[in-house]
Design brief:
Blueprint lengths: L5 E5 L4 H12 L3 E6 L2 H11 L8 E5 L5 H14 L5 E4 L17 H16 L1 H5 L5 E5 L20 H22 L4 E5 L15 H12 L3 H18 L5 E3 L2 E3 L10 H13 L5
Parallel strand pairs: 1-2, 1-4, 2-3, 4-5, 5-6, 6-7
Antiparallel strand pairs: 7-8
């Protein structure tokens, strides 16, 4: 497998992440999946190793809402890999109640934004050393400007507001990352996919999602095919800071940026992640 391309996929034990791992293994890639549940990592590894060669799939157990775990995940990858062709930032979960992690971060922001950023920055050197490397980060259509003065959402919490805030931050960060780094990072909106991500939404949203999934939802295999198609498009075009939906380029979401937002977020993010080696 020394000449195979390597992908690191977060949220790789279920949904789009697992299906994308399957597709890439079929194409001869080496794939490393990251998941927070050890038993699920083990079962996914056993399932996926039947697709590729025995040494083409591996798993890292890490809770990516905990920055110390993100550090360890990056270190684990770097111990055994000298190149990284594709970093797929896909892990996500929606907390219905306000949860503060052991490190003091609001859990949605920690997993969806801070963990993704820290993993990217920890792997930046190997990404830059790999010709043609790229990063794809998964978001949805919900965006809401981050409240810089209430990062833990102490004033008022809703799961959808928390989701919108980290997705806003991730897209603002993507613009700044591309301005400062040669490795292309692009945004990916998969559409409504038949996964479990919205299964814990309160009623009537939960029922609405089930109905919409039956009508217009796409299976994870189709979503994974779309991801691989976009991966190829970016490899050919060299696009940076572009938004893709399904398997086509689309207009970026309206983030309603204020003049200082990008610089302010970059500085804040570096301050928050400084204790973890950034």
């Amino acid at each position: 497998m020394s000449d195979a391309k390597t992908a690191l996929i977060t949220g790789g034990t279920d949904g789009i992440g697992k299906a994308t791992a399957h597709k890439l293994l079929e194409q001869g890639w080496e794939v490393v999946i990251v998941g927070r549940n050890a038993a699920r990592c083990e079962s996914t590894f056993a399932e996926l190793k039947a697709v590729g060669q025995s040494n083409s799939i591996s798993a890292i157990v890490a809770d990516l809402s905990i920055m110390r775990d993100v550090q360890k995940a990056a270190e684990s990858f770097l111990e055994s890999h000298k190149s990284l062709d594709f970093l797929f930032l896909n892990a996500n979960a929606i907390a219905q109640t306000r949860i503060i992690t052991s490190e003091g971060f609001e859990s949605n922001l920690a997993l969806g934004y801070l963990g993704r950023v820290l993993l990217t920055l920890k792997l930046n050197t190997v990404l830059k050393a790999t010709p043609g490397a790229q990063i794809l980060t998964v978001v949805g259509l919900n965006v809401a400007r981050l409240d810089f003065d209430d990062l833990t959402m102490e004033k008022q919490y809703t799961s959808q507001a928390a989701l919108g805030r980290w997705q806003w931050a991730m897209q603002v960060f993507t613009g700044e990352y591309n301005r400062r780094n040669p490795v292309p990072m692009n945004i990916y909106i998969p559409g409504l996919v038949r996964t479990k991500i919205l299964s814990n939404e309160p009623q009537p949203m939960r029922t609405m999602v089930k109905v919409m999934n039956l009508i217009i939802g796409i299976p994870v295999e189709k979503a994974a095919s779309n991801v691989v198609s976009v991966l190829g498009q970016i490899a050919r075009s060299g696009n940076k800071n572009v938004t893709y939906a399904w398997k086509k380029q689309r207009e970026p979401l309206d983030l309603k940026l204020q003049p200082e937002d990008a610089d302010r977020l970059w500085k804040l993010t570096n301050d928050l992640l400084h204790p973890y080696g950034v």
